Amino acid sequence: MATKLIVVLDMPEFPEAKKMVDMVCGLDVLFKVGATLYPADGKRTIEYIKEKGRGVFLDLKFFDIPHQIKGACEAVSKLGVDMFTIHLMGGREMVRGALDGIAGLSKPPLILGVTVLTSMNDDILKNELHIDKTSAEMVETLAESGYSEGLRGFVCSPHEIAMMKRKFPGAKLVTPGIRPDTGGTDDRRESLRDDQKRVMTPRMAAELGADYIVVGRPISEADDPAKMVERILNDIGG
User: Fold this and answer.
1) I need a surface site. Which of 16, 22, 161, 218 has the fewest CB within 10 A?
2) What pLDDT, in 10s, does the model give residues 46-76?
3) Is 61 designated active site?
4) How far is CA 108 from CA 76, 80, 100, in A?
């Protein structure tokens, strides 16, 4: 499968999200609805994206007791999303609850296990969370727990793609932390890096085998978002 592009809709209201969807939905993309947009206008946005014939990645990182997770997964499946996230720090029983929530569906969405956020690094794990593992080791540990319970999709930084492909055959990888090489000044490059700490260009992530790459601000803050999407699709062979 060729690498697919997921465009982030991180606006706070539907009219802004609709504008972005209208600008780029003619291109081969999916759309991410996350924690900023969903509480305000998430369901409306999802319905609009589906009307446009595009896929939806719902990224709310569910993290709760297994019973609540099961109910949440049942609920979002009814929205018609294609993929959604749970956080693997919730443990194996929570993963089983999530899988129970989509059991029996004729076309279930893909559940993606979130491992370590791309805004985190080894220093944060060690000094703030007191976790005695590197970020790569923690990604592998969490992914192993999800994979052994039956998950076949994960979110990981581009720096873990090769390891994830090797360790978890058949799993789909969704990769945030993607920053196009602007070819501009160091200041411009740093502004696109923003709060992501483990980043990579679209082409590099695609070459490593990412199934989906997730790009937000480099598209939404571009002078011409559609042109930026076209450029990224060209970089990944889309």
Assistant:
1) 22
2) 999 999 999 999 999 999 999 999 999 999 9
3) yes
4) 10, 9, 11
Residue 31 belongs to domain spanning: 4-235
Q: How far apart are CA 23 and CA 37, in angstroms?
A: 18
Does the pTM exceed 0.70? yes
C-alpha to C-alpha distance for 230 and 238, rounded to whole angstroms: 9
- In this prediction, residue 157 carries a pLDDT of 87
- Return d(Cα 175, Cα 5) in angstroms, integer: 10
CATH no. for residue 168? 3.20.20.70
Q: How distant is the alpha carbon of residue 90 from its chain centre?
A: 18
Number of domains in the chain: 1
pLDDT top residue among 185 and 35: 35
Annotated catalytic residue: which of 18, 61, 70, 197?
Answer: 61
The phi, psi pair for 14, rounded to 5°, reads -60, -45
Q: Is the pLDDT of residue 36 over 80?
A: yes
Decide if 201 contacts 179 (C-beta within 8 A): yes
